[in-house]
Amino acid sequence: MLPLKEKDKPIVQKLLSAGCCARCVLRFCCVSVQAAYRQPQQDTLKELKALISNAENSKSPDSAEAESTDGNNKPHDAAVSEPPEGPPSKRAKLELSATDAPAEEDAAAVVEQTDEESCVCVVCLGVLQELCGPTQAVKIAEAVKAEKYEFDTLVLSVSLPAQLCVREHSCWLHVKKELREKSIALDKDDVIQVKEAFKWIMQGLVAKALGGVAVVTRVDADCHFLATTCPDCFKPTKNKQSVFTRMAVVKALEKIADAKFLKHYPCPPAQPSSSCIPQDIQCLHGSVFVAGRYNKFCRSLPQTPWVIDGERRMESSVEELIAAPLLSSFRANSFNFSSSGREDVDVRTLGNGRPFAMELLNPHRSRLSKVEMKQLQETINKSSDKIRVRDLQIVTRDAMSRMKEGEEEKTKSYTALIWTQKPIQRDDITFIDDIKDLTLDQKTPLRVLHRRALAVRQRVIHSMNTRFLDSHHFYLGLKTQAGTYIKEFVHGDFGRTIPNLCKLLKTDTDILELDVESVDVDWPPSIPE
Questions:
Q1: Which DSSP string do the residues of 146-206 spell out, in sequence order?
Q2: Would you call 470 a catalytic residue per the annotation?
Q3: From the candidates 344, 346, 510, 520, which is the catalytic residue?
Q4: pLDDT tens figures, 382-432
């Protein structure tokens, strides 16, 4: 039995007469029992017809009694035209309440409309009819099997044409008056969405839903009038084939007045000439996140592909050397790389390495054992002598945020080879060892001004130490706040970093080599060798 009440009967009558399918009738009656949508639509339609038929039959005894009290078998019209004598007859009561009951023509229309199985629903355009069944479920299952995913659970999503919003709104206005007359408290938001009904039906057929199902129609003619009534809601974009996106249509429907809508669009919506067709079945696996630390031993290797004016400058990069074996092992389509800071192309990263994380998009394999991850790490390390990774492991999306937490408070250690213009003695640099927590004002360096906003950033050098080499060279060790521009501190960047090493030593200085010795982030967890 459908969970419908007496108050729902006039709504059911009105919707069926308008050409709604049985499942859309349930939606507008706010039926939230999922089992009601899962039963065959033919059975649902029969129950809805029976509900209307019972409503009609419940009035027939009164009608027969009224005729028996009318006397002399007078014609119906004559009985009504005569002025009543004494108490009003039951016939009179019946005639007065006739406006509340569905017209006979409407009842006939229901039978005519719903008996034709090929009739396309005026609201969902067939989405909850032929597209919700075993045939479509088999197509989805076959698409998943063809992709050869490894998975435990599946998620079903559906993308519907924007014009369904217009038809839904029209049908809502169609029943709105009936609801107001019956004093039924119901809001448009209470109506079950097509997407929800679709999922309720299909989840049972495909066990647990999956990747994505896009259901579209050939045209968006239902939306055209909105472009003239609400032009500010529809802006052409490069990446969209049509201006009638779902968001734009919903925004326009929220803005347009009911009277204006009814002036431009039929209510209830007109019978469609064709139904929705499934355009594509897309299977997508949730991302897998892999983290670790990398060392970079080469002074001619960028962290990410180095492209200038559309031309690639280096043949490879850190992220590509790491990504290639990962993409192969997890059978992923692509990746997103992130790390705790970045080094320049001519800077090495030594010590325990720099933390990194890689999001593998649409992986067909999602689980690797600890042994397999260890083997994968060895594969990466054997593929090139320019980099080395350690602590390679699968992590969660939430765990990745730890890499970026407190980025400004992190510390990093460096070793720089310094050149001085004037000759120096060992004693000329020893004072640097005693400098603690030196605050710098660093204007955005000229070399990165093309990609970073112009600003003055305060950074702290916590400590420094020196190692004398000869009269023009010494090693400078630094422990700094993350985000400190070391090269600019050494040469001053034309006075854009103050104070700088040139000011401290009272001579021009430059940096010949720079190594990152440590990135003090306790993530990801270390894995014993």
A1: HHT---S-----EE--THHHHHHHHHHHHHHHHHHHTT----GGGSPPHHHHHHHHHHHHS
A2: no
A3: 344
A4: 999 999 999 999 999 998 888 877 666 789 999 999 999 999 999 999 999
